[in-house]
Design goal:
By secondary structure, this protein is of the alpha+beta class. The chain contains eight helices and 16 strands. The protein is globular.
């Protein structure tokens, strides 16, 4: 079960020809970090991001992972073993411990006056080419392969505090994984839908569970809202009207005439929030079911709320207590 370290895997100066190996690819990113950078000073965000990296890289290396890239607020880590199942197990245990380490990061965020950060993690296992890319001016040793791309796409599907994996990874982990829901989704760059499984915890080497990030059923309300689907990272210019029928600090239920796909990202403007805070509320669709009178009930989970928007949501929830 020997793990290849970074020197052996990525920086072997004597091996310039690409080599194909099976790796586990873990990609993590922070929900709504781009909006955070707009809200707070760049130097403050650099300080917080570096602290986040210190905590997460320590977790990754403790599980035998190799950090291949730091990409803004994202981390690509690789896991290797002579047995695929052992690499997948280490990768999954690492993902769980990374999520469990987020309170430490958020304690530092609180000291800096920044609201809580939330991370999503995508897991994928498959063949990748270990190679040197670039030119004579600049080059780097890295990995190229569909599994890396898929892990990144899976991470983008995650809700706050969630770990998702593809079926191949689940097959390697099914003896020790505590799975959540299985959902078929369409991933950019994939011609066919793929099945994703949520990882809730592991039974080995010790029983470990992720904290439940679901705030439960919200308070019943009847409030107007306008929402804007986000497609290819572009917010639609045309808003869709709806009614908020339940509300919590973690999400809301919206009654609408136009349904949205599972995990569709949307920008929200609850009409009780100052219109200037409009760009600061984002959510993803976690379910969409038919309702009476040709309507649809969408349940959404917040992925990011700016400071003013967050205060408005908290105030609206408090008024229902």
């Amino acid at each position: 079960m020997k793990s290849l370290n970074r020197m052996e895997v990525l920086n072997q100066e004597t091996q310039r020809e690409p080599q194909v190996r099976n790796f586990g690819a873990l990609v993590s990113d922070l929900r709504g970090f781009t909006a955070l950078v707009e809200e707070y000073s760049p130097l403050l965000m650099v300080e917080l991001l570096n602290y986040y990296y210190v905590v997460m890289i320590d977790v990754i290396t403790s599980h035998g992972g190799v950090v291949d890239k730091l990409m803004g607020d994202s981390i690509l880590a690789l896991f290797d073993s002579h047995e695929n199942v052992f690499a997948a197990q280490r990768m999954a245990a690492c993902a769980i411990d990374m999520q469990l380490a987020m309170p430490e990061v958020n304690a530092r965020a609180a000291k800096l006056g920044v609201h809580d950060l939330h991370m999503g993690i995508g897991l994928c296992f498959g063949p990748m080419a270990v190679c040197q890319i670039g030119s004579s001016i600049h080059s780097e040793r890295t990995v190229i392969g569909d599994a890396v791309n898929l892990a990144s796409r899976i991470a983008s599907c995650c809700l706050r505090g969630q770990v998702l994996m593809d079926e191949t990874t689940y097959d390697l982990l099914k003896r020790i994984a505590i799975p959540g829901e299985f959902n078929v989704v369409r991933i950019k760059g994939k011609s066919s839908p793929i099945t994703l499984c949520e990882l809730l915890g592991l039974t080995w080497p010790r029983r470990t569970l992720l904290p439940d990030s679901n705030g439960g059923v919200g308070h019943s309300v009847d409030l107007p809202v306008t929402y804007f689907p986000v497609v290819n990272k572009q917010v639609s210019m045309e808003g869709i009207r709806g009614r908020i029928v339940n509300l919590s600090e973690d999400g809301l239920g919206v009654l609408t005439a136009l349904p949205q796909d599972f995990l569709q990202e949307i920008q929200l403007w609850p009409h009780f929030v100052d219109e200037h805070a409009l760009p600061d509320i984002y959510a993803k669709v976690v379910s969409c079911e038919a309702a009476p009178d040709g309507q649809f009930l969408m349940q959404l989970e917040f992925t990011y709320m700016g400071g003013l928007a967050s205060q408005a949501i908290q105030s609206a929830v408090a008024q229902q207590l």
